[in-house]
Write a structure and sequence with these properties.
The protein is α/β, with parallel strands linked by helices and 179 residues long. It has one domain (17-154): Rossmann fold. It has 3 helices and 10 strands, in the order E-E-H-E-H-E-E-E-H-E-E-E-E. The protein has a 6-stranded mixed beta sheet, sandwiched between helices. Helix 2 links the parallel strand 3 and strand 4 (65-75). The two termini are 21 Å apart. Bound molecules: 1-O-pyrophosphono-5-O-phosphono-alpha-D-ribofuranose. 1-O-pyrophosphono-5-O-phosphono-alpha-D-ribofuranose is lined by residues 45, 47-48, 71-74, 79, 102-110, 162.
Length: 179
């Protein structure tokens, strides 16, 4: 499926599933090299990161845990600039090595807000792993420890990412063709 239409917008295939899987396998190995002597807690940021987290977790060979939080800041294709916590932490993280899993860092507003918030709970360490990064859109200073693929500033959907709630179910990533 080279082209898809979601609501009023058209998208074309941009990053195929097989490439996404290779990138994730490589990232899982790098994370394992850094954490093999500890038992990290992967913290998946819902909704967008659910597919990335599931695939990365399957490829991580060491002892680890996973938990989920739900944040939201986008309405349609635009950030609102306000990060809402819709579901928060469900466990004690003091003294824990945390690896945040994000599908995408765009403006950096979400990750900046989250890293700041988490520090109040006194984790041992916090690192960030993102499948996608839009360097041209970044407007916050953020430390990204593991970055899968750098992409241009196009609106994308698929592999967990949505347009107004739709399109998360495609296994490939698609970029918008009309502006
Ligand atoms: C998306 C994505 C990141 C964030 C990145 O989440 O999953 O969390 O935006 O954008 P930023 O760097 O500009 O903050 P969204 O708020 O759309 O919620 P969702 O994950 O439920 O789609």
């Amino acid at each position: 499926m080279g082209k898809i239409k979601i609501l009023d917008k058209e998208f074309e295939k941009n990053i195929p599933y097989d490439h996404i899987q290779e990138v994730i396998k490589t990232m899982a190995s790098k994370i394992y090299e850094d954490y093999k002597d500890s038992r990290p807690l992967f913290l998946c940021v819902l909704n967008g990161a659910f597919m990335f987290a599931a695939d990365l977790f399957k490829h991580y060979p060491g002892h680890c845990e996973i938990s989920f939080i739900k944040l939201s800041s986008y309405a349609g294709a635009q950030t609102t600039g306000q990060v809402k916590t819709l579901i928060g932490l469900d466990k004690e993280i003091e003294g824990t090595n945390i690896i945040i899993l994000e599908d995408i860092v765009d403006t950096g507003i979400t990750i900046n807000h989250l890293v700041e918030d988490l520090s109040a709970y006194k984790p041992e360490s916090v690192r960030v792993a993102t499948l996608l990064l839009k360097p041209a859109a970044l407007c916050k200073e953020v430390r990204l420890d593991y970055v899968g693929i750098e992409i241009p500033n196009d609106f994308i959907v698929g592999y967990g990412l949505d347009y107004n709630g739709f399109g998360r179910n495609y296994k490939d990533i698609y970029k918008i063709t009309e502006h």
